[in-house]
Amino acid sequence: MTYMKNDLGEKFDLVILKDVIEHIHDQKRFMKEDGKIFFGFPSWRMPYGGHQQMAKNKIAAKLPYYHILPMPVYKGMLKLFGVSKETIVDLVEIKETKISTARFEKLCKENNFNIAKRQKYFIAPIYEYKFGYKTKKLWKWVGAIPFFNDFFTFQSYYVITKK
Question: Considering the entire predicted model, what is its pTM?
Answer without folding.
Answer: 0.77
